[in-house]
TrEMBL record:
Assigned protein family: Belongs to the dTDP-4-dehydrorhamnose reductase family.
Known role: Catalyzes the reduction of dTDP-6-deoxy-L-lyxo-4-hexulose to yield dTDP-L-rhamnose.
This protein's name: dTDP-4-dehydrorhamnose reductase
Pfam families found in the cross-reference section: RmlD_sub_bind
BP GO annotations: dTDP-rhamnose biosynthetic process
Keyword Aminoacyl-tRNA synthetase included in the entry's annotation: no
The enzyme's E.C. designation: 1.1.1.133
Source species: Pseudoprevotella muciniphila
Gene assigned in the entry: rfbD
Superkingdom of this protein's organism: Bacteria
GO CC terms, sorted: cytosol
Domain RmlD-like substrate binding, first and last residues per copy: 1-283
Keywords (A to Z) from UniProt: NADP, Oxidoreductase
Reaction equations catalysed: dTDP-beta-L-rhamnose + NADP(+) = dTDP-4-dehydro-beta-L-rhamnose + NADPH + H(+)
Family matches, as InterPro entries: dTDP_dehydrorham_reduct, NAD(P)-bd_dom_sf, RmlD-like-bd
Length: 285
């Protein structure tokens, strides 16, 4: 099987590259980012998929700058909505399949119980709206498509909340962090391992949710990040959302129910604090 990983230089793409040997010798991997393939170019996508006989796409590419998306709607729509549809249609034509990574931002964030895959969607931002449109295009374009919604992604790669809080904790004596937004952090390594297990099991079409186990707030997340990173001299203050206005509206509650992915694929999901410890140990190396 020939597998294409798009967005290979991002957090999830890099983690997938590190565990490729877990997939087995029967898989051959192709890696692209914008330099190798512009996924917003339908003809380029079709040619690449056909020329390299791609059987499965793991689409990690996306416009993820949530606040910038409010001002860059056209580019966000191209990357998050149109491009996934091009990828799905191209691999469907070859008789292949696609795993498309999506987000908790497709929900309103106004609930108080974990969102199931069939919970009503109601995105509150350009980012969430374009990601939902991308899901819909993928499902329409590829019969066997798998959508994985995740949230609060972090890793040793690129820019993310964990690395930012460690940097600010070392630079400042005091830090204010929002305490009334609740969700579940996701270690990109754990998501990559779950995708590997899904591929080896055999993909079952549909929408799935994946984050690490447990829930927390951004404030509590930061406290644990500082504890595990050995940061002792930075006071972390809890803030209300209205104390920290942003261009894009954040979900107040975006916990995802993972029952379906665990039951379908037999996946054992780590607790978020254990996952964070592993990531921070890697950052120390």
């Amino acid at each position: 099987m020939n597998i294409l990983i798009t967005g290979c230089n991002g957090q999830l793409g890099n983690e997938l590259r590190l565990i490729e040997d877990r997939f087995g010798e029967e898989y051959t991997f192709f890696h692209t980012d914008i330099e190798e393939l512009d996924i917003t170019d339908r003809e380029a996508v079709n040619a690449y998929i056909q020329d390299n006989a791609i059987d499965l796409i793991i689409n990690c590419a996306a416009f993820t700058a949530v606040d910038r998306a409010e001002e860059a709607q056209e580019l966000c729509e191209k990357l998050n909505s149109a491009a996934p549809g091009y990828l799905a249609a191209a691999v469907e034509e070859r008789g292949g399949n696609i795993i498309h990574v999506s987000t908790d931002y497709v929900f309103s964030g106004e609930g108080c119980v974990p969102y199931r895959e069939d919970s009503p969607t109601a995105p509150q931002s350009v980012y969430g709206t374009t990601k939902l449109a991308g899901e819909e295009r993928v499902i329409r374009s590829c019969a066997g498509a798998v959508i994985i919604r995740t949230a609060w992604l972090y890793s040793p790669f690129g820019n993310n909340f964990v690395k930012t809080m460690i940097r600010l904790g070392k630079e400042r004596e005091e830090l204010g962090v929002v305490a009334d937004q609740i969700g579940s952090p996701t270690y990109a390594h754990d998501l990559a391992m779950a995708i590997c297990q899904m591929v080896r099991h055999g993909l079952v079409p549909g929408v799935y949710h994946f984050t690490d186990e447990g829930t927390t707030s951004w404030y509590d997340f930061t406290r644990v990040i500082h504890r595990e990173a050995g940061i002792r001299n930075c006071r972390v203050r809890p803030l209300h959302t209205e104390d920290y206005p942003t261009p894009a509206k954040r979900p107040h509650y975006s916990v995802l129910d993972k029952t379906k992915i665990k039951d379908t694929y037999g996946i054992d999901i780590p607790w978020w604090e254990d996952a964070l410890k592993d990531c921070i140990e890697r950052l120390k190396d």
